[in-house]
Design goal:
Length: about 325
C-alpha cells in the first residue's frame, strides 16, 4: 500500500465553527444516523439512480422533478435498483411538488442540469423549504461555494459528485465549500460509506474538483492532437485505451511518476510540456462540431458516427466493463 509522505493542504475555515469542529485538516467523527429521510431533486438518469442507491441501504427517499411526467418510471427504476442492491431496501416515493418532496428531509441532493443560475435558484428554494437539512449538489464541475452563494447558512451546503453510472462507480467526491462545516463533511462521508461508496474529501472547492480536472486535461490534449492532424480520433482513443488506460486502473499518475523516477519525470516534462495545448477556452474544433449539429452520440455524429442503438450499446458495454473490473478487484465479489 502506497502512502503519502505529507498531509494535503488545510481546508478553508468554516464561517461558523461548531462544537464538533476539530483541528484544521482533521474531520470529527461522522454521524450517519442523522440521515433518515432523503430527497432527490431531479429524476433524470443520475437522480433516479442516486435515489435507488440511497434506498438500497434502508433509507426512505422522495424523488421529484420539474417534469412530473417522468416521475412514475423514474420511481419504479429507482425502487428496482434499490431491491437489486439491498437486502432490506427503503422505499422510493415520488412527489409532483418540491415542497412535498423536501418536507422532513434530512438530506436534500440536487441532480439537475449543469447550469449555475438554475442551481443557485434551486438551492435558495431548498434552503427555505428544508431549513435544517444538509444541502448537497451533484454538480460535476461547479464549486459548491458558488452554488450556495445566496443561502442564509452555507455551512450546511456540500458538494457530492457521484460518477456515472452512480450505482457502479465507487468514488464519490465530497467537496468542502469555503463555509461548509467540517461536521457536515464528516457526516456526509459517513453516509457515503454506509451506502457502500468510497468517499474522497476534496478539501478545496476548485472548479472540476479532482476527477474532472484530470479528465478534461486529457480531453483538451486529445482534441488538440486531432485538430493538429497528429492522428485521427480512432487512433487517439485507441492509444489511450491500450496504453495509459490499461495502467491507470492499477497505478495512478503520481505513483507512476515515483515508479519511473522523479528525475526522469522532470526530464520528460522539460521536453513535452512546452508542446502541450494550453488553451483556456474550448477548442475551435469543438465549437465547429457543435455549430454543425454534430453533438455526439445523441445526434448521431460527433468525432465518431453513432448509428441508432449505438449509444445504448456503448453504455451497456461500459457498465459491464466497470462491473468486471470491480469484481476482479474484489476477488469476484462485486458489491457495487
Amino acid at each position: 500500500m502506497l502512502t503519502s509522505p505529507s498531509e494535503p493542504s488545510e481546508p478553508s475555515e468554516p464561517s461558523e465553527p461548531s462544537d464538533r469542529d476539530v483541528a484544521p485538516g482533521v474531520l470529527p467523527a461522522g454521524d450517519v444516523t442523522r440521515f433518515g429521510s432523503i430527497a432527490v431533486v431531479g429524476a433524470g438518469l443520475m437522480g433516479r439512480r442516486l435515489a435507488g442507491v440511497f434506498a438500497s441501504r434502508g433509507l426512505n427517499v422522495t424523488l421529484t422533478d420539474a417534469d412530473p411526467s417522468v416521475l412514475p418510471e423514474a420511481g419504479r427504476e429507482a425502487q428496482r435498483l434499490a431491491q437489486d442492491r439491498g437486502d432490506s431496501p427503503g422505499f422510493v416515493s415520488t412527489a409532483m411538488h418540491v415542497e412535498e418532496a423536501l418536507d422532513g428531509a434530512d438530506l436534500v441532493t440536487e441532480a439537475v442540469v449543469e447550469n449555475l443560475e438554475l442551481k443557485r435558484r434551486l438551492f435558495t428554494e431548498m434552503a427555505e423549504l428544508a431549513p435544517t437539512a444538509v444541502l448537497a449538489s451533484n454538480s460535476s464541475v461547479l464549486p459548491i461555494t458558488s452554488i450556495s452563494k445566496y443561502i442564509d447558512d452555507p455551512s450546511r451546503a456540500i458538494g457530492t459528485h457521484w460518477w456515472n453510472p452512480p450505482d457502479l462507480i465507487p468514488i464519490v467526491e465530497v467537496v468542502q465549500g469555503e463555509s461548509t462545516s467540517p461536521g457536515v463533511v464528516a457526516d456526509v462521508m459517513a453516509l457515503m460509506e454506509h451506502l457502500g461508496k468510497r468517499p474522497v474529501w476534496v478539501r478545496r472547492d476548485v472548479p472540476g474538483f479532482l476527477g474532472n480536472r484530470l479528465q478534461h486535461a486529457l480531453w483538451r490534449e486529445a482534441i488538440a492532437l486531432v485538430a493538429e492532424g497528429v492522428a485521427d480520433p480512432e487512433t487517439v482513443d485507441l492509444v489511450v485505451r491500450d496504453t495509459i488506460g490499461l495502467r491507470l486502473g492499477e497505478m495512478g499518475p503520481l505513483a507512476n511518476a515515483d515508479y519511473i523516477g522523479l528525475d526522469l519525470t522532470r526530464s520528460i516534462h522539460e521536453a513535452v510540456l512546452p508542446a502541450l495545448d494550453r488553451s483556456v477556452t474550448p477548442h475551435p474544433v469543438l465549437d465547429g462540431l457543435i455549430r454543425a449539429g454534430r453533438l455526439g452520440a445523441k445526434s448521431g455524429r460527433g468525432f465518431f458516427t453513432w448509428p441508432p442503438g449505438a449509444r445504448e450499446a456503448a453504455g451497456a458495454a461500459l457498465a459491464a466493463h466497470v462491473s468486471s473490473e470491480l469484481a476482479a478487484r474484489h476477488g469476484g465479489c462485486n458489491k457495487e
